[in-house]
């Protein structure tokens, strides 16, 4: 914990997205790769029923693994409920976001407040019952939030959320951090090459005090992407302490 009057350390916040029984082998590989690069406890973004094809059931072997990870200090975030966008988008802006920024996975972009609240409440209950601990926060699939999602998070007192550019407290509106997240894409060759280029630049330029980095199960399917993740994490971990989101929040609390 940082003491008042001292400079907080430079931090690396790494997270594994789409944590689900559907992706268990890929998650294991990502855990292994991050650990080899110096990140022992990445945050896990858990999807209760990925694409409605991989339900996490209490008492299942995967549920037991979630509990062990949580007991080991891993922060568990709720990451949507199904991760699948099933909404009809009224505005052209949301239709563009849904089609260009993700491949049908922006689940919370078009939900109204009532449905968003129902899904967040159900997902939070499931994860907390399994792990025996409060969730660290809620992060929408593809980092896409509609008005209904914002309203639901505030109503439910969600303490932490993030998108591509910031980390904030939905319950109070306080912004903890403004900086882009480093992530990789494998959906198309153009997106993959672009994300590799961004990661390469991130390994050579001065970085902010807190760096966020997110990896996905699909990243393990492309050797060049996996190599880039390994090199990028290892390089940043030399100057930034692998940390948890609560460490960042604690730094700000001590500084205020």
Automatic annotation (TrEMBL):
Classification via InterPro entries: DUF2334, Glyco_hydro/deAcase_b/a-brl
Pfam families, per the entry: DUF2334
Organism: Sphingomonas leidyi
Domain of life: Bacteria
Protein name: DUF2334 domain-containing protein
CDD domains listed in its UniProt record: CE4_u10
One of the protein's GO biological processes: carbohydrate metabolic process
């Amino acid at each position: 914990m940082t003491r008042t009057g001292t400079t907080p350390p430079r931090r690396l916040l790494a997270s594994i997205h789409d944590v689900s029984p559907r992706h268990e082998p890929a998650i294991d590989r990502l855990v292994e790769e991050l650990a080899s690069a110096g990140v022992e406890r990445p945050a896990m973004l858990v999807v209760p029923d990925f694409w409605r094809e991989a339900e996490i059931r209490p008492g299942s072997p995967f549920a037991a693994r979630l509990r062990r990870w949580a007991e080991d200090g891993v922060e568990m975030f709720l990451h949507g409920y199904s991760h699948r966008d099933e909404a009809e988008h009224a505005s052209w802006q949301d239709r563009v976001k849904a089609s260009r920024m993700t491949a049908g996975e922006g689940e919370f972009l078009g939900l109204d407040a009532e449905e968003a609240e129902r899904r967040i409440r159900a997902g939070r209950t499931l994860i907390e019952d399994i792990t025996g601990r409060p969730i660290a926060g809620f992060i929408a699939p593809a980092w896409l939030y509609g008005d209904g999602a914002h309203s639901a998070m505030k109503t439910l007192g969600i303490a932490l959320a993030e998108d591509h550019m910031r980390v904030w407290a939905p319950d109070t509106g306080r912004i903890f951090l403004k900086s882009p997240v480093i992530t990789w894409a494998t959906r198309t060759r153009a997106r993959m090459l672009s994300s590799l280029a961004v990661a390469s630049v991130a390994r050579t330029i001065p970085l902010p005090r807190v760096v966020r980095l997110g990896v996905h199960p699909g990243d393990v399917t492309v050797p060049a992407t996996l190599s880039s993740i390994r090199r990028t994490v290892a390089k940043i971990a030399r100057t930034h302490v692998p940390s948890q989101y609560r460490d960042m929040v604690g730094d700000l609390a001590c500084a205020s």
